[in-house]
Amino acid sequence: MKNRLMKHQLLRTLVELRGNPRACVYTEPMWGLSMNLCLPYATVYMLTFGMSDSQVGIVASIYMFSQMIFAFLSGPIVDKLGRRKSTAIFDFLSWSLPCLIWAFSQGFWFFVVAALLNGMMKIPTVSWDCLLIEDAPKEKITQIYSLVILATNLSALFAPISSVLVAKLTLAPAIRILYINAFIVMTAKLLILYKLSTETAVGKIRREATRDKSLGELLSGYRGAAHKIMTSKGTIFAIIISILVEIAAMLGSTFWQIIVSRRIGVPDTLLPIFPMAKSIIAIALFFTLITHIRQTRLKWPLYGGFVSSIIGCLLLISVKSTNFWGYLILSVSLIFEALGGAVLATLRESLVAIHVDPAERSNILALLQTTVMLVSVPFGYIGGLLSDISRVLPFVLTIGLLLLGILATALYYNGNFRKSDNARGTI
């Protein structure tokens, strides 16, 4: 039995992980005992304070704007402090501290302040990514990212805890308790990761190279990273896919709860059940379908991810009530959303990791994150305005973005972009 299990690529990769990749992957399920308990209610929690859909959209845009600023600063900060220390410090500032603000929130401005702090998460996004893969075998990158996303989905199995608390305490008091819990668990997670990890080989080199340089001097180093991005069609393609997937994911996570709760009429106590079901589906897909995606052949998986996500959106906006057919169609939409989301999240990260120059990884990742956030900033507010008109419209916008993803994939793999990258030896 053990030998049979070890033949599975994901399980074998999980067991064979060593060093920083193991520390990052093994601590990731703690996300489920913290933030994943709160996320199914994050948007409707705002509505309990009398906020409008537009105000929810404004908070989302402020969050994206903050991410853009800190994404731009992340490269020099991560190089100067090191991957390990940056992850610990800014995980606390961007996750633990906002959890306390959310827990004791009294209205719109509390969420604005929390969003500004939460935007710092782009710094540990870069540092944690570097910590995860800089010492990992390149041929294992897709498998490692699959394990990370799988860990996140496994952690969603704790979602029924939220339902029980909401049923017993009502929504606002229950979510306050869950945010306090998130503060405790997220803080424990970052401390455990810091203890189990070490600075990466590249991180040590970059920290030594930047020791006597000012932040301004380090920011000027973006010129070289920008040149490498502009001369790599694969990196440009990875950025385009990241932008489209980021905006679609943001619109979905922000407005899914609103359309399901306020338009379709699903009771608040049932809201966490759907993300949990979606995660179970995603887990099954990882062990059956996604594990067979080959790092050298990503075109058709990308097409499949975009098409599946589009079908999920179409089914979602077709549901108008909570009768038998409504719940059935909503459940089917979750299957397509889970497939599309899991595939696109995995391939988005893999494309970036594959095409980025290892010597400039932190700076290129910082510029990539800045670009993604710069383009994404208006879409939270736009989504809020559209939702005020009709709660279907944010998902119509999402469908349009996913169609652009199909077009970008076709142009890259069928056009001259791909050929120019092949000439340089990239995927």
Structure explained in plain terms:
The chain is mainly α and 427 residues long. The chain has a single domain, classed as MFS general substrate transporter like domains (Growth Hormone, Chain: A). It is 80% helix and 0% strand. The chain is built from 22 helices and no strands. Helix 10 packs antiparallel against helix 19 and helix 16 runs parallel beside helix 20. The longest helix has 32 residues. It is globular, with a radius of gyration of 21 Å.
Describe the main β-sheet briefly.
none
| CATH class annotation | Mainly Alpha
Can you name the CATH architecture?
Answer: Up-down Bundle
* Distinct helical segment count: 22
Strand count:
0
- Span of the ends, CA to CA: 36 Å
Helix and strand content put the structural class at mainly alpha
Please write the string of helix (H) and strand (E) elements.
HHHHHHHHHHHHHHHHHHHHHH
- The share of residues in helices is over 70%
CATH fold description: Growth Hormone, Chain: A
Pick out the low-confidence regions.
422-427
Rg (CA only)? 21 Å
What shape does the CA trace take?
A: globular
How many domains, in number, for the residues?
1
Mean pLDDT: 86
CATH superfamily: MFS general substrate transporter like domains
β content, as a range? under 5%
